[in-house]
Amino acid sequence: MNTIESKIPKGPLAEKWTNYKNHQKLVNPANKRRLDIIVVGTGLAGSSAAASLGEMGFNVLNFCIQDSPRRAHSIAAQGGINAAKNYTNDGDSVYRLFYDTIKGGDYRAREANVYRLAEVSNNIIDQCVAQGVPFAREYGGLLDNRSFGGAQVSRTFYARGQTGQQLLLGAYSALSRAIHKKQVKLYTRYEMVDLVIIDGRARGIIARNLVTGKLERFSAHAVVIATGGYGNTFFLSTNAMTSNGSAAWQCYKRGAYFANPCMAQIHPTCIPVHGEFQSKLTLMSESLRNDGRIWVPKKLEDVQAIREGRLKPTDLKEEDRDYYLERRYPAFGNLVPRDVASRAAKERCDAGYGVGSTGLAVYLDFAEAIGRLGKDVVEARYGNLFQMYEKIVDDNPYETPMMIYPAIHYTMGGIWVDYELMTNIPGLFAIGEANFSDHGANRLGASALMQGLADGYFVLPYTIQNYLADQINVPRFKTDAPEFAQAEKEINDRIDRLMNIRGKHSVDHIHKQLGHVMWDFVGMGRDAEGLKQAIVKLKEIKKDFWTNLLIPGNKETLNVELEKALRLADFIEIGELMAHDALDREESCGGHFRLEHQTPEGEALRHDDQFSYVSCWAYQGEEKAPVMYKEPLEYEFIVRQQRNYKS
Amino acid sequence: MDKDINIKVKVWRQNGPKEKGHFETYPLENISQGSSFLEMLDILNEKLINEGKETVVFDHDCREGICGMCSLYINGHPHGPDEGVTTCQLHMRRFNDGDTITVEPWRSAGFPIIKDLMVDRSAFDKIIQAGGYISVNTGSAIDANAIPIPRDDAEMAMDAAACIGCGACVAACKNGSAMLFVSAKVSQFALLPQGRVEATQRAKSMVAKMDELGFGNCTNTGACEVECPKNISITNIARLNREFLKAKFRD
């Protein structure tokens, strides 16, 4: 049995990171120049890491799936980024940010990692302001904050409803500067298709040039995966169209552990599904819950009247509305964490109180806020979100309440990493959403941007040196090593196999089926029977994929359908692992809700005595069941409690 | 109320940068007006796949109007007939039953066609690399509240920073000028104290790179501002010109 070594430094919680930095190995400037690092991905984590490593003097190769690093899906994050600055003087501190984050994650993250995250959060804000990120400011010229779910302080920095965009453009500008100074070489429209391991260490990647269709080899002393999450397993999600789990999956197949795959976040406030042709779901920022009130009608006859168009929601009297979050969670109200808000919406809709044509929607209402603050203030805060909503739904949210429903948004699970963000494969690192991360079983709002940038700017650039310090005598690798040739042959064979199926179904056709199974059985509420059914159904989908797929065109050219097919092959397998992990975890925690394990009030019921571990899945080969190792989560500094957002 | 409509889509097909392109017209039936423009193209591609034909290639990613990847010239307008939206935010309710919709790629010397509706916009990255940043290394920043910035300045900087780098401004311009794009970045930083230090040099380097990459001159037609999905204002161009002149006087 493998033992999982998380490499958490000894000592008091608040001193661990400082102690680590004081004693880690460093690489001197002359040696940095001789070391190559591949960074795959250019989102917040990838571009901040590539820029920082380049500035430090390493030779960085950075890969981007889109036509420019500025397109990475971090750009779509709306609401904000958390930091423990306590500028609002409401009692915030590094400890409180740590505590809220680990509690929000339902006690399934490492104490030391989360504390470090809270610790560096303040540096991130400083860094971004220095780069020219135009955060919102007060009239006195100082930075403004707002509240987000799961916190009782205002610690979220924001740039209108476009915080992710502005932070990504900040990192992109730093990356562009490093490219200009020849510290980073950028490859756009390239997709990693395999990891190359030589003598047990990550030494390179095979990437497909998406324009020419050619496979190309790249070598390095270390490989950093920053390719985001696998939410698109569900077909419909808030992820971008090219967001995929394949780079992580390739690492898994090459021996990296995949941790907590079942932990996926379902975001409570998305625009509801409207039809079969739908290609993706659009998020409405959590920040809207600062001022918006969520409700459904109290009486079933009103629900019926609204669905049939006989009654307008605005005509419904105050006493006939059920503000169910305020009712159930008086202390946090509409600002409960995402998992809690999503399940509460599902509970009301399952009970028949959902609105909209499908009955799968609840109201997010701004009438009270507009009355209290005036339309101008609401527009200044959320104008771009309201406009986005109106364009999609053709309804004016200033006049009639928005309709929202939960959707897959983020994956807390991912590649297992130790405290140094290194996987169990030496020289392979994973950062940002791609790793299994610091969010435990549920991520709080405005924490993804924080973690992506923490990893990229302030954690990885230190910890990677502790590994590279031992590599200074290793000469640059040639890409004609047999390991590269073998990896390239394998992926080439896989592509040939896909091209030669010549069946009758498009990639999207099969992907939609996968999405339905995932949403119905591995979604917001899971149970053993459903998960077992899902595993059977996923096997059928896999078979259908490998026998009935149709990809037009050729392989050695730009071929979007082939790109999608390669990703879908992996999504199906990721879905299977998610179902296995969800079946194994016989408890409810955060985003993972097992119907069999809930409190009498319907809240998530953890079983700390049995499931206080990170599940680390190890690949055993095609058609073989993966093996699961456990990294025990020991809580030395805080006491785990039933999460309470009621009082 | 959204209904289903029958349309024809007249799409530019071009196999590669050096190949000759042509229009092809495809009829589509029962397209829901509730679907987005790109979902309509998905339906077209699904149909083409089922007929064993190659799909229409177009750039798209976030499908929520922020990544700047989508880049279609629809019925003579970058991002189509709707104002203040990207192609992915355009919905079929803007079109009527029986319409023929013409879809072309961005056409500009600065953006060569890769295939069908997909163009190469790496020139924009090169312009940013020439100076579209504040020179600060990771870890060397001062406290975020050390320099108060007047709220209005920060707001104006944010207005400029909202640019998504899609290239609609270039596609809309009869000269193929990238001035709106360049000026938005120059303005964002020139308005902030931390960006002032390099403001003139930045303007000079970015404009030089823009000229080198084959973008045309600005003749103040204002077409860019009209077609910009993020409503970036041409007052930014005036600000860029000021910075540029300052740099020239110093030379």
Count of individual helical segments of chain B: 9
Most extensive chain contact?
A-B, 81 and 79 residues
Number of helices of chain A: 18
Structural Rg of chain A: 24 Å
Name the overall outline of chain B: elongated
Structural class of the secondary structure composition of chain B?
A: alpha+beta
Largest beta-sheet details of chain A: 5 strands, parallel
What fraction strand of chain B? 5-15%
The number of strands of chain A is: 19
- Neighbour order of strands in the largest sheet of chain B: 2-1-5-3-4
* CATH architecture term of the largest domain in chain B: Orthogonal Bundle
Predict the CATH topology of the largest domain in chain A: FAD/NAD(P)-binding domain
How many domains in all of chain B? 2
- What is the CATH superfamily of the largest domain in chain B? Alpha-helical ferredoxin
Percent of residues in beta strands of chain A = 5-15%
Describe the structure.
The complex is a heterodimer of chains A (647) and B (251). With 647 residues, chain A is of the alpha+beta class. Helix content of chain A is 37%, strand content 15%. Chain A contains 18 helices and 19 strands. In chain A, helix 3 (44-56) runs parallel beside helix 13. The longest helix of chain A is centred in the last third of the chain and has 25 residues, at 560-584. In chain B, strand 3 (72-74) and strand 4 (77-78) form a beta hairpin. Chains A and B meet through helix 3, helix 5, helix 6, helix 12 and helix 13 of A and helix 1, helix 2 and helix 3 of B.
